[in-house]
Amino acid sequence: MTEGQKGVLYLCATPIGNLEDITMRALRVLREVDLIAAEDTRHTRKLLSRYDIHTGITSYHRHNMRTKGPVLLDLLRSGKNIALVSDAGMPGVSDQGSELVGLALREGCGVTAIPGPSAGITALVISGLPTESFVFIGFLPNSVKARREKLKELQGQQGTLIFYEAPHRLRATLADLYELLGDRTAAAARELTKLHEEIIRGSLAELVEHFKEKEPRGEFTLVVDGAGAASPAKKEPEWLHLSPAAHVALLEAKGAGRKDALREVARLRGISRREVYQAVLEKET
Question: pTM of the prediction?
Answer without folding.
Answer: 0.75
